[in-house]
């Protein structure tokens, strides 16, 4: 105990007064004390002079070791000590490497121990020693020490060392040529650890951001190694049930540790365990850090990555859901070299379309030239539109961003190609086996972005081309009128410029839904033909929008009114008229003619004489809506209406009678005149 006290005090003395020659001795005896061996229950510490300290009391030994670590921490924190570290001397790098190595090994040894106050304080002191020593080392010496530590065979020591290296690189603000050369010399050592240490890629990611543009050839090697690791077949991590797998690393108790004869010659082999090399982890365990490093390499190196692009894109597409960030960086950094891979990227994105994928497709649409993108989009659409496993929205998002970010001149030059793509995508309803209305709406929304870029003269031929295409089947007609519904909602009055081109088609579609004479076949057909069927619904919505936004009353001419009214009245016998009602009620308002109002009023009320109570109810529903829309102009029609209302107020169907009473109240509120004297 007296000897230990004297050495303890001697270390305290060296903290205040130290020479260059005594530096080696202090480091050496510190290592000797911190690195003990244990025989039975007796703790022994041997010095090179032959002095041997025995501690039968483990608590006494722990406090002595903690005190020694504390003094070593204070020593390493002193300005005099750090000044000596900045001076070069022969063999000092090796001694400092062993000192750092032993400190890290002790921390690794206690990481699985019970975290009592002693262990916490010891780890804190040893961490302080490590940070102080490594933080004050010159860059070249620091890199040499780190390189020596990384060449050992203990994975946990590699992790501690990589953390120190990461913090040192992160804290460096100005990089001298010497620092860069020292750091670049470490790349090969780091790449050897890349498969088993995820932190390696974090360090490399930081390095490529700091000095990658100054050493492109070196970091191309990093990118090449990353690609090789990503493309390598995965290996299984060690199983905890494997008897050869040891999850923790313990300091051994060698029976006869050998110490050097003199301080300048420290042992090359440290006194901590050499565990077997850890099996290479599957790339799925390290992909986040690895992919982040790949992103930085592509972003910093830019066009220099061209020779590696084929291999890189192939690897990324094989695991596209994990590599969206890398593909996004590539689209931003080297878009001019990705034309050959666009089709594969778009198809892969459509297979699992997430929010991250949406960001990727939008970047493709923004960064790629329209002349380059359109062939890839057309080819991808051929694959995706009929596949139930792919999401067509990925193609529409890409095309939409491309149209929005392209100048009008470029769009006009490629209008025919764009039209061919839209015809392919609008056929989605007729070719897919799992129809989704939201997908078709996405196609229509993308088409609207195109329409906003075209003039009336340029859009009309495209609309006529789509109208001709729509005549092919009921599915294509349904899609076309879904398109015209949304076009009429967005363009409003402007759509009437093209309304005359589709008016005949609207009449034809409505006539196909006209009920025939009452026969068994007709009754079966009438049960199927409701205004909620997609085609009839979209046709009626389109017609209603055209009537509603006709503010100048120029679209519904007398000829069009007389051709349209009978067709709409024929549909009033359908079971559901929820979409027919607004269109039929708005027709006379759009006509804006007293003569046509009277014609409409008589023909509609004349249907109230039907024997079918459902028809009579539909008539009063439409008539109530008509009065509401016509407003005060309705007064001129009242004399012709009273006989029909008097009859309907006595209808045998309660629903018809109740609705007629509502009509009477509406007329009274509109005209301001009581109806009691007339009914």
Secondary structure elements and pairings:
Elements: H1 2-16, H2 20-34, E1 37-39, E2 42-46, E3 52-55, H3 58-77, H4 79-85, H5 92-109, H6 117-136, H7 139-150, H8 155-171, H9 177-184, H10 187-193, H11 198-211, H12 216-231, H13 283-301, H14 309-318, H15 324-333, H16 342-351, H17 355-367, H18 370-384, H19 393-404, H20 408-413, H21 415-426, H22 428-431, H23 437-451, H24 456-470, H25 474-491, H26 496-512, H27 520-528, H28 534-548, H29 558-570, H30 580-591, H31 594-606, H32 613-630, H33 638-648, H34 654-671
Antiparallel strand pairs: 1-2, 2-3
Helix pairs in contact: 1-3, 2-5, 3-6, 5-6, 5-7, 5-8, 7-8, 7-9, 8-11, 11-13, 12-13, 13-15, 15-17, 16-18, 17-19, 18-19, 18-21, 19-23, 23-25, 24-25, 24-26, 25-28, 26-28, 28-30, 29-30, 29-31, 30-32, 32-34
Characterize the structure shown.
The protein is mostly helical and 679 residues long. It is built from 34 helices and 3 strands. It has helices at 2-16, 20-34, 58-77, 79-85, 92-109, 117-136, 139-150, 155-171, 177-184, 187-193, 198-211, 216-231, 283-301, 309-318, 324-333, 342-351, 355-367, 370-384, 393-404, 408-413, 415-426, 428-431, 437-451, 456-470, 474-491, 496-512, 520-528, 534-548, 558-570, 580-591, 594-606, 613-630, 638-648, 654-671, and strands at residues 37-39, 42-46, 52-55. The chain has a 3-stranded antiparallel beta sheet with strand order 1-2-3. α2 (20-34) packs parallel to α5 (92-109), α5 (92-109) crosses α7 and α29 (558-570) packs parallel to α31 (594-606). The protein is elongated and about 120 Å long.
């Amino acid at each position: 105990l007296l000897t230990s006290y004297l050495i303890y005090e001697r270390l305290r003395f060296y903290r205040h007064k130290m020479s260059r020659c005594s530096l080696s001795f202090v480091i050496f005896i510190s290592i000797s004390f911190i690195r003990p061996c244990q025989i039975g229950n007796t703790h022994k510490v041997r010095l090179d002079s032959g002095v041997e300290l025995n501690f039968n009391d483990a608590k006494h030994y722990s406090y002595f070791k903690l005190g020694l670590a504390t003094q070593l921490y204070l020593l390493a924190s002193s300005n005099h000590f750090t000044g000596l570290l900045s001076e070069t001397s022969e063999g000092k790098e090796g001694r400092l490497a062993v000192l750092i190595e032993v400190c890290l090994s002790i921390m690794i040894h206690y990481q699985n121990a019970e975290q009592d106050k002693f262990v916490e304080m010891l780890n804190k002191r040893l961490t302080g020693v490590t940070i102080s020593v490594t933080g004050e080392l010159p860059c070249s010496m620091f890199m040499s020490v780190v390189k020596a530590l990384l060449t050992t065979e203990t994975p946990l020591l590699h992790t501690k060392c990589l953390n120190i290296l990461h913090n040192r690189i992160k804290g460096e603000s100005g990089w001298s040529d010497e620092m860069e050369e020292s750091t670049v010399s470490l790349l090969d050592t780091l790449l050897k650890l890349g498969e088993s240490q995820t932190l390696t890629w974090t360090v490399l990611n930081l390095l490529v951001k700091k000095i990658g543009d100054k050493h492109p050839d070196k970091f191309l090697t990093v990118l090449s190694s990353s690609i090789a690791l990503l493309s390598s077949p995965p290996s299984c991590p060690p199983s905890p049930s494997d008897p050869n797998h040891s999850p923790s690393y313990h300091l051994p108790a060698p029976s006869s540790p050998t110490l050097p004869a003199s301080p300048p010659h420290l042992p090359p082999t440290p006194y901590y365990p050499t565990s077997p090399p850890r099996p290479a982890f599957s790339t799925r365990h390290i992909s986040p850090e690895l992919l982040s490093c790949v992103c930085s390499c592509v972003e910093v190196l830019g066009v220099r990555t061209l020779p590696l692009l084929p291999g890189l894109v192939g690897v990324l597409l094989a695991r596209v859901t994990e590599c969206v960030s890398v593909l996004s960086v590539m689209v931003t950094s080297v878009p001019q070299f990705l034309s050959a891979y666009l089709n594969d990227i778009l198809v892969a994105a459509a297979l699992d379309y997430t929010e991250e994928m949406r960001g990727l497709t939008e970047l493709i649409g923004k960064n790629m030239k329209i002349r380059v993108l359109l062939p890839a989009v057309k080819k991808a659409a051929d694959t995706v539109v009929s596949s139930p496993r792919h999401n067509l929205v990925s193609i529409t998002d890409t095309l939409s961003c491309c149209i929005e970010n392209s100048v009008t001149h470029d769009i006009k030059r490629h209008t025919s190609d764009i039209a061919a793509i839209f015809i392919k995508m609008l056929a989605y309803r007729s070719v897919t086996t799992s129809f989704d209305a939201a997908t078709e709406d996405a196609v229509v929304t993308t088409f609207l972005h195109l329409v906003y870029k075209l003039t009336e003269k340029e859009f009309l031929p495209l609309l006529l081309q789509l109208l001709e295409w729509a005549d092919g089947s009921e599915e294509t007609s349904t899609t076309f009128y879904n398109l015209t519904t949304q076009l009429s909602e967005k363009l409003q009055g402007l759509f009437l410029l093209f309304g005359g081109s589709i008016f005949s088609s609207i009449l034809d579609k409505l006539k196909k839904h006209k009920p025939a004479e009452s026969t068994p076949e007709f009754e079966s057909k009438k049960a199927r033909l409701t205004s909620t069927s997609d085609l009839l619904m979209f046709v009626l919505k389109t017609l209603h929008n055209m009537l509603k936004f006709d503010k100048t009353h120029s679209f519904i001419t007398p000829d069009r009114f007389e051709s349209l009214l009978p067709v709409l009245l024929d549909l009033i016998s359908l079971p559901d008229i929820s979409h027919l009602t607004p269109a039929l009620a708005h027709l006379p308002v759009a006509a804006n003619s007293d003569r046509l109002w009277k014609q409409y009023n008589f023909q509609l009320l004349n249907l109230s004489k039907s024997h079918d109570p459902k028809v009579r109810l539909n008539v009063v529903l439409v008539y109530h809506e008509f009065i509401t829309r016509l407003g005060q102009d309705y007064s001129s029609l009242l004399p012709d209406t009273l006989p029909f209302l008097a009859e309907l107020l006595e209808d045998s169907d309660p629903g018809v009678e109740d609705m007629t009473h509502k009509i009477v109240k509406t007329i009274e509120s509109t005209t301001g005149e009581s109806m009691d004297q007339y009914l």
